[in-house]
Amino acid sequence: MDKTIATVADAVAEIPDGATIMIGGFGGSGAPIELIHALIDKRPRDLTVINNNAGNGHVGIAAMIEQDMVRKMVCSFPRSADPRAFTERYLEGRIELELVPQGTLAERIRAGGAGIPAFYTPTSFGTDLAKGKPVEEFEGRSYVQERWLKADFAIIKAQLGDPMGNLTYRMAGRNFNPLMAMAATRTIAQVSQIVAPGEIDPEQVVTPGIFVNGVVQVANPQQEESLNRQEAVYP
To answer: CATH number for the domain including 189?
Structure first.
């Protein structure tokens, strides 16, 4: 099955208003900037976005927020070097925030991909983040119940992909991307290069093609940090 998609616009064409979207990356590392900007061009509204942070500057997720596309952010780090897009709207009551400790965020996404509806963690016990959540005691220690995270779509970034959707990642760009690929109903990956079937050593595959619905080649992907140093604004 050939899962190759011709353009980034085609790759995000099916994402509707009201969708829940996981967006890969840890800051700019592994962030699918071209897919995010293609989504901005399409302009779906009322989105719930799951990511490690709430954007930086005026590109990527921050640009989505500036275009009033995002109803709610689920993230662990809503502050950044330049978080004004999120901060201004949050203080005005125009965007919701679900704050999740980083390890818990990763595990909630992993649980969603593994079909585990809930798990217990000591993280956040006794804090405002645990209010209203079930608490159980195990071996004399209190643990907070956390629910899985799933999404309608995941847009992620990888290094190599093949037409069957098998993916490898470059160094720290791996971060949340493989977990999100497993936790979404439909996963779209931008890759620096699409290679022929069999050219990726099976032992090097990180995300098997069964978790990927589409692959689009972006030969020279942009980097969020570089765009911000240039004071870029999108669109």
So the answer is: 3.40.1080.10
Domain span at 108: 4-115+148-229
Residue 48 maps to a domain: yes
Instruction: Record the pTM.
Output: 0.96
- Number of H helices and E strands in the chain, helices first, is 7, 12
Q: How many domains does the chain have?
A: 1
140-191 pLDDT per residue, tens: 999 999 999 999 999 999 999 999 999 999 999 999 999 999 999 999 999 9
Contacts of residue 54, Cβ cutoff 8 Å, sequence gap at least 6: 61, 62, 65, 73, 75, 77, 78, 79, 80, 83, 85, 86, 97
- Concatenating the DSSP letter of every residue in 184-215 gives EEEEEEEEEEE--TT-S-GGG-SB-GGG-SEE
